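To assess whether the prediction recovers the assembly geometry, we first specified each molecular entity separately, as shown.
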Amino acid sequence: MHITDILVTGEPIIYGAMVSMALVGIALLFILTYFKKWKWLWSEWLTTVDHKKIGVMYILSALLMLFRGGVDAMMMRVQLAFPDLGFLNSQHYNEIFTTHGTIMIIFMAMPFLIGLMNIIVPLQIGARDFAFPYLNALSFWSFFFGMALFNISFVIGGSPDAGWTSYTPLSGAAMSPGPGQNFYLMGLQLSGIGTLATGINLMVTILKMRAPGMKLFHMPIFTWSTLVTCFIIVFAFPILTVALALLTIDRIFGAQFFTLTGEGLPMMWANLFWMWGHPEVYIVILPAFGIFSEVIATFAKKRLFGYNVMVWSMIVIALLSFLVWVHHFFTMGAGAFVNSVFSVSTMLIAVPTGVKIFNWLATLYKSKIEFTVPMLWSLAFIPSFILGGVTGVMLGMAAADYQFHNSYFLIAHFHYVLIAGTVFACFAGLVFWYPKMFGHKMNERLGKWAFWLFFFGFHVCFFPQYFLGLDGMPRRLFITNVAEWLPLNVISTVGAFGMGLGFIVFVYNVYYSFRYSARETTGDSWNGNGRTLEWATTTPVPYYNFATVPYVDEIDPYIRMKEEGKTTFEEDKVKPIHMPSYTGQPFIMMAFLGLASFGLVFEWMYVAVFGLIGAVFMMIRRSFDYDDGYYVPVEEIKRTEKKARGL
Amino acid sequence: MAAEELKTGPLEYRTQEGQMGIMGFWIFLGAEVVLFATLFATYAVLFGRTADAPLPSELFEPGIVLVMTFLLLTSSFTCGLAIHEMRRGSVKGLILWMVITLALGLGFLGFEIYEFVHYAHEGATIQSSAFWSAFFILAGTHGLHVTLGIGWAILLLIQIKQRGLTNVTSRKFFIISLYWHFLDVIWIFIFTSVYLIGMVI
Amino acid sequence: MADSKKRVPMNHVIGFILSLVMTLVAAWAAIQSDLPVTWVIIGIMILALLQAGVQLFMFMHVTEASSGNGHVPWNMMFHGFALAGIIVAGSLFVMSFGHDHGDTGEHQQHEQQESEDHSGH
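The predicted structure of the complete assembly is given in tokenized form:
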């Protein structure tokens, strides 16, 4: 086999991408070698089991993927605004909308939120780390290698091109031969393992490692949203695992699950995919609700209105999320009864969601709002998300859906919920907890520029798409030179570039703040408005998180602690702290599994078997590994705390 | 991570780590229920889609399947006895009953492999029709779980020889016992909804 | 655990015998009996659920208080099985397309009417 057989050839844009990737890669190697950072990279990051560092790596990867998915989006928008330019050909367009969707959901939204959960949840409940720190590292590396595998597809072998939903029979072996779809299947499978493990890990952490006295209904609302999300992850991800495995077996081993021969049933894929897919959208929206609730309560300087109702509405949303999947394929041709059942259950979800909206408004009512950057994102979320939610109810009406289905109306709807919900929350959460992670705030002025650019860009980009949809423009269409569509498409493209500009300002702000922002001196970064335990630690957070864990018997415990002058360092109560040791095993184990997946993509069975044997060997090693971690001595804790607190 | 250790109760529950490991595994089993449910759903939907391949009622043999079921049921019972011995503090009893469990598991696997080979000879393979794809993947996933369980248990038997009964080793054995009983639960449903219903219809 | 002192754990033995008996009854119902097919299917599925209960409660200690894990194991199993029901029944319901339940003339009439409606447009 010759190298040109597996490299993608003949596309100027992809050649450009290859060259720039090679240059960035060489630059990274050079920097690491020149500044002698290899050892640092290995011993501080690749082998870490610290939930805070793993969280940072998740967020960095997610930002990288936001960039990649964003570039895909820009390219699509250019093509749609200038359909006669010949910027993309049809095959390339298919690949780009596929990777855009997959990356944004699986490799951007989820890791971004999981990264925030990683860093914040243990701090909010007063835990030293995750329940299973080793497993946490394993989760990250499985996500990382899944992401890497998916992303190399556009230079090696060719990207998947059957849409992010990968519907059969199009995505089957007969109609999509070659490695493209295999990249999709194996990349998602590998990262899905990590997601499931994170779900279990966080659930146990929240259920077993809360501060003494903290009942479930004392937990901060973000932690609650995480718990509910993990519940959905644990019960939804195995469905995806099976669906992906079945399609892989179809493609590689010639089974007949979703084929047109052998009495296979292609629509069964849609059924399985959305049985996971619908809960998945709640996996990415519930943590967002949690973040907005925290931010709104903090900057309205009031206790969250209707805390219990907020929690229960999340639980109801989680349960309903498993009962609505058919609304994604109302047009499959099922009878009126089937569609009606799912139409009703879909509309039911609007009820608990509406309850949450009113509770946020009630929290804001008669409060002294402080318009910080995270608060701006949160306030912008409410009206924008309602636009997305209301059009969602329209889509939920099965009869009307025959009109809306697969039109730009749908595109506009889910971008309104996913961007105004999830992406706004990611930005809000990152800016809000940034000082906890890095010891300094992000610049407010630049942050506001980024916000307004992104906010206006978003509405300019997606609001016209509702009307494009009503005018009959279908999704996934590459030639759109219909006269009535053109003006709105151009406007939409302008908006998309506004969002891109906002993202650039945001990233520049990361650099700018690193250089010029004042370093934090207290842990309570937002003018002393912190309400929950994560603000009670010093900044930057010591690796053991809490010198002494306070007793908690109410919501927002840090407010009382501040009134009573209590801290998380009560010198006479300090005891040695048990910590897990760093290890390179998760990285190596997942690298082997990544290799096995890569082998399966190209159906090189000897590579796959070799990778699998390596991974099994690493698991056996792990089984015999009785490393019990180490204890941080009292003296070291006291020294660290005194220095950080200036005592 | 609490360093405190309870003085009473089963060894595997005495430390925070032990409790957390076991809780994590229960949550994992919840995920496994859904995993198998998805395979059952696929099987149920694709039932009857045999194309040109033989019908299940022509191939399924009640005798072999009943033997397999009894093997697995008995192994689940002996696995329970192993944990009972472990809680009585008897390493010897634990090892004895665990080895019997594994032997029964191997017997089960042997019959399953024979069964699959036999079906393949009769013209029912994973490629021959949607129904047979679903059958082989459902039963095969269970069989793969049994295989992994046997390998895992062997690793644990080596460890108990090396280290004796501690909080950690007893937690590990308790967890694998949960896994083994759980595989029996799944098999009961395969036995009922695949083989028995397959023979009725 | 008072039980762990005993040489022979009676609840394990009872559970084992129960599951053997239930397996035999189910096999008999499916292979030997002349009961109507629907009743056989319902009956053996109930027996399977009971057997799963035997495993969970008598062998797997799903409600053991000393585990320190409260209701979590029970909860995960309950929701897992509830969801399993949704997945299996839901898939059958959806993938039937709602066209093949009820084989009476009423249904056919209804379809006929529908196709007339379509041709009217």
